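Section 3.1 - Work completed
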Amino acid sequence: MDEDRETGTALNPRWDAAGLITAVVTDRAGALLMVAHMDREALAMTQASREAHFWSRSRRRLWKKGESSGNILRVVEMRIDCDQDALWLICEPAGPACHTGAASCFYRRVEGDRLT
């Protein structure tokens, strides 16, 4: 089964024990925007709508990125890694990706025990 998962053509995500898969989100230029998690429903809704949906581990519910801010992520392309346990969403963001208003959730640099 692993060989089929790694070299076959069927989408067969390897869900973790919580039923989630990690989703890495970049823009078309390759800038890292955010990392989130998807369950089966979030993946299906993303595929159907071409707008990113995720499973919020903190809120314990499905959410559409931008549902309150309007900063949706339009999915241009979706890829999965070799053993199908992580997704890569290439998106066109309709505004900042981070809830703080930053373009990316990765706006702070770690330098020793400080953030800059």
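Second construct:
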Amino acid sequence: MQRFFAENLFDGKTIKNNQIITVEAGIIHSIEPAAAQDNAIQLNGLVAPGFVDVQVNGGGGVLFNNQPSLETLMTMSRAHQRFGSTAMLPTLITDDFATMQQAANAVSAAIAQNVKGIVGIHFEGPHLSQPKKGIHPSQHIRQISPEEMALFKRTDLGLVCVTLAPENVSIEVITELVQANVIICLGHSNASAEQTFAALQAGAQGFTHLYNAMSPLQSRAAGMVGAALVDASSYCGLIVDHEHVDMTSCQLAIKCKTPERIMLVTDAMSHVGSDQTELQFAGMQINREGNKLTIEGGRLAGSALDMASAVRHCVEDLHCSMQDALKMASATPATFLGMQQQKGYLAPGYAADWVVLTEQYHVNATYIAGEQVFG
């Protein structure tokens, strides 16, 4: 049995001091007060639940679309572990069916081989809205096919999330996917509030990068943004990188939805964890300037954000409490994925996944299943 000493520990609910964590077979066995370090492994910093990122396009210099392989997933996961992510959904941007199959097979292999950090797959498209496509390639945006339905329903992929535009996918199809345990997110959509509410009623659970690439809140049309903000039960991904969403809009979202329903996401491209400045994707060149990724004409093209920076921005710029910022990075996305009995908290019976943070929310170390994977 492994023993760790945490001088400061946030378990997902409360802050505790001087705790001994015991771990057996990758699972937390106990967390108990300790008078001394007692020969345990010292964790230097604030110990908090590992971050859960439901939207990761790439990292470590590789983009999932460009190289949908097991090796790419391992590279991406290692890159994001440097920034505290202990669980993630590799995300495939709209592409052809062959690439979708390759991506699914890679994730299936990762799940079968228990690759650390990979818990499923997020298909962001291809069943989206052309007017709100962002950088998603127009030629691949299409109606859902029987082959794609079968792909989404595969049971060897871990958790499956699909982002779709509800004006282009029928309520019957949404219901069928939900019944097959597919997590449905709404996004890249020009849907009305009414169409959005209908999709939520059919079982859609969340919204992909709130505010970005969706019909806005206006005085005489609430749009998808208005529906998302007013609906109490759905979850919203939020990219807090100073590029995608105005800081006041971020504060409004958290105020409306609460930290129990806002989950920090990176929407990270290959640049995270690398010194890459240029990336080719679908015939477009994506350039990095500072932490901003754009294509020609200045349109945003994903992000160079990592989860630790997202947490830091919430505390420093949105004036969130440390507890709320960490909750939005761990417990909330874990609950959204249905993993609230396994991840997002530090307690007996939970995965021994944690991050050790400095006072400025930089990562000292990352642990998955009790094993140090960074630091």
